[in-house]
């Protein structure tokens, strides 16, 4: 309460005064998200929220009021400050780039990374469920990139036997992955 006391000056601190640090901890993330929705720039959003709290500290009459009043004050301040940032043009170019629509919609890189990780996880899980012999053929062929003749020589079998067993492994993988791959395809179509 020393910081709060410093900003309030001679006013007496009582049970109704609100701890600004507690308010900051409680509302900071929400307000940054709110500001980010307006200006589309994380650093500017953080600056805007900090500026709103500085304004709150400088407006000593607001500090005595209730939490709903403070919450309303903070959201309105953040909204107005965010709009001011846009008006000043600090992020106008970035905002225009983000809101500009392309002819072909693109998937956000983070979503693509999540989908890729999940696809690889499902493929590895399906490979682990294959009988050992088929798993070995698949690993050597697909992950190590060996040619059919190299795999056949390494496993001591004819190339025709290898081709048949490799085809059987692919069929088993397709069966295990069909529903999952349909889901992934649907995600890419709708994203």
Helix content: over 70%
What is the percentage of strand-forming residues? under 5%
| Overall tally of domains | 2
Poorly predicted segments: 1-18
By DSSP (H or I, 4+ residues per run), the number of helices equals 10
N→C terminal distance: 50 Å
Overall structural class, as computed from helix and strand content, comes to: mainly alpha
Order of SSEs, N→C?
HHHHHHHHHH
Provide the gyration radius in Å.
30 Å
Shape: rod-shaped
Largest pleated sheet: none
What would you call the quaternary organization?
A: single chain
Number of strands: 0
Mean pLDDT: 77
Structure summary:
This protein is mainly α and 191 residues long.
Commentary on this structure:
The chain is 80% helix and 0% strand. It is mainly α and 191 residues long. It folds into two domains: 2-99, no CATH class; 109-190, Orthogonal Bundle (Arc Repressor Mutant, subunit A). The protein is rod-shaped. The two termini are 50 Å apart. The relative contact order is 0.08. Residues 23-89 form the RNA polymerase sigma-70 region domain. The chain crosses the membrane at residues 173-190. Belongs to the sigma-70 factor family. ECF subfamily. Pfam families: Sigma70_r2, Sigma70_r4_2. Keywords: Membrane, Sigma factor, Transcription, Transcription regulation, Transmembrane, Transmembrane helix.
Characteristics of this structure?
10 helices; Arc Repressor Mutant, subunit A; 191 residues; 2 domains; single chain; 0% strand; mainly alpha
